[in-house]
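Batch manifest, entry 17 of 40.
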Amino acid sequence: MNFSLYSDVILLRDIPEEGLYAGDIGTVVEQHNVQGLETGYSVEFFDMTGNTVAVVTLPMSCFRLPTSADRPTVRFMASAV
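Output type: structure tokens
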């Protein structure tokens, strides 16, 4: 499955070193095609006030599209106090 530029995707695995966890919602900002490798995507993750939290590049198997069964949630980040 290919993701469109600027579409929302949901992260499927934790990346604690970036402060990202499975279920976080990001926006596709670039597609990377390298012959012989899985298509990759650069995805930007934001906080609820629109500030960039992280931009990561991962293979497409690390993301999925949102569905009507998904609900946004809020998690308190101790470092934001």
